[in-house]
Amino acid sequence: MSRIRDRLAATTVDPKWLRILAFVVVAIAASFALIAGQLTEPDPPLEGEPASRTYTADRLIKVVDMEATQVRRDEEADAVPTVYTPDEDVPPEVQAEIESFFAAVSLQSFHDQVRPAEEPPTTTTTTSSTTTTTLAEEESPDGETTTTSSSTTTTSTSTSTSTTTTTLAIPDLGTQDEALALAYGFLSDTTRRTFVDIANEDLSRVADGETELLLDALLDDTVRIVATSYAPDGIRSDELTDVRNDLISQPPLLSAREYPDRDAAARAVAELVVFFLQPNLLADPGATQAAVDLAIAAVNAEPTSVTFVEGGDIVKQGDVVSATQSAAIADLLSRAPQNPKRAAAAIVVVGVIGLLTAYLRRNRAQLWAQPRMFFLFGLLVVLAAVAARLVGSFVPEGDPAIGYVMPSAAFGYLGGILFDTRVAVLMSVPVAVFVGITTGDIGLVVFSAAAVLAPLPFIFKAASMRELRVAIFYTALVVAPMAASIAWFFGEDNFAGEAAFYGFGGGLLGGLIGLGIVPYLDNAFALTTTLTLLDLTDRNHPALRLLEERAPGTFNHSMLVGTLAGRAARAIDADPLLAEAVAYYHDLGKTENPHLFIENQFGAANPHNWMAPEESAAVVRNHVVDGIRLAREYRIPPDVASGIRQHHGTSLMRFFYHKALEERSADDVNADDFRHIGQKPQSREMAIVMLADAVEAAARSLAYLDNPTADGLRKVVEQVVEEKMEDGQLDESALTFGDLTNVKEALVDALNSHYHHRIVYPKFAEDQPPEEPEPVL
Known about the structure:
This protein has 777 residues and is mainly α. It contains 31 helices and eight strands. The chain is rod-shaped, with a radius of gyration of 61 Å.
């Protein structure tokens, strides 16, 4: 901070160019803070939220209805049939299983035995055969067990010329059924008995000499039924149950044969086919998913869309936004032109800064003449833009209540403390305009301008930290109802209570921010603010501690001068804190040679008794030079340090001047050798310090010589003021005759309070006769 201050103070550039530079920098910085990434349209309202305003289509807007499109996708995906792949091996395998069953049922091995014999030959061969029939279980390819019979025949042959004998053991029906049950136990007893009966019927037919067998015809019918079941497209796994149920409920028609029981035979065939029938169409998940993907792709190629015509409302304010409406609003906002809006905002910013600059140039000549002050004002404008940007970023659309937390009051504190009340009022203009750019809310614009003004009545005469802290609380109390009123008047919804809550918080926040920033800014720009003066008037300040340690008499004199100056400043509505601070440091230079000043000698011999008048005048004159050097060393602000140069002005050191006249003729004495080399007071506060310093010294001298009275003190004050006026020391200050009258009254009252009468305590030494008067310096 000190580097910035030193550079600004040491600059030798033409102030005109510095002001132009400040204008350009402030305009660019404020525009960037407000425009960069900010002046885009707000995000579209989310699905399911109420619309904060009515959105109207500025052109034909066509958006995809994602919900309806998804419904179509689901419908098309569900409509895709499962893709099946045929298994060509299944029908032959089923037919082979059925043929194996018929082979197991058949009694064909006994047909030759029962078939009628032919004419006997001349030579008869007698054959004795023993046939053993064995039933064996075989496992079919599909895992089922099949029972087969085999016959082993032992034949012995003898040649005879007369007879033939054949022996074959034919199993009875029960034995046949048991053998069949071992291999095909899954068939019902009725079905097995039906097939056994037909097999035995074939045996009888063979014995009767017939050649057409029922089992052969039944096998053909069964194979036909299987082929019919698989025709034309095959059987899917989900269809197998229906096919089996159809066969059971509607037994197939058999060819015209003389079955023992045609219906039983049909039911038996149906049951046999039901148990052997297998699906030959297998689901193909990969092919099915590919078909689903194609169907979905077709929907995606032509999704369901909703069209909003130009000039039509997409959604009205307060209505719940659908997904389609949200997408349409997003499309509307994404194509809205942004560059013209940004350019307009930049023009507004430049225009506002230009108007502020013109006002300062025409109405605040003193501020305009100091480039560093113009830079500081510009910095406040940039900070206002940043604050408005932050508030605009945090205020959710449709909920402006939180915007009332805007710390606009901070700029009232900054303007009022760093500058004055008029500049603080002026700061309300950029703050309000910038808030309008970032939020577009007229209520927040009015509130921001009013909040800048809120702290001014409370900080106008604040002269202590306590008063500044109280000002923060009072400001918050004022801002809260103001926020509620503005929100109630301009807001469409009833959020006055929320606005009051946020307004109170914004008032507190603004005070904390403003007073927190002030010390850094006043140090950086070498300003003398209330906080700076409070710090300077702290008895623990290093410079005051130096004064107290090295020159305690001067320290006490300075404290009393500060009391007088503060009281006089209040009497004419000047700055009492500045007057007190200047008074505290006006004799800082006496710490270099404290023993040469009467107030620090405490009864010791006065060196000036042996010094030439000109030498004594030079010593006294140097305390001003030393004071200026020490003020620079201790970083005393220029507004206070100037009091060191101005508290004596160019007045005459009358004591040493008259001493010289006593020693020499008037022609040999040059009055300029006995004048201070300072500067006449340039403000009311500096003039007050000059008068208070001289009055305090004269009153102390009077008290040393005699017991002061109210009339005596008044005469001292009148005499000092008249002398300063006649010497022209007050000519360059802004004091008026009315001010001087009030100042004199205040000084008299303060002196009377200080030099009040006390009772005479007994047994104390009587007053000693007055000594030779010493010079009052």
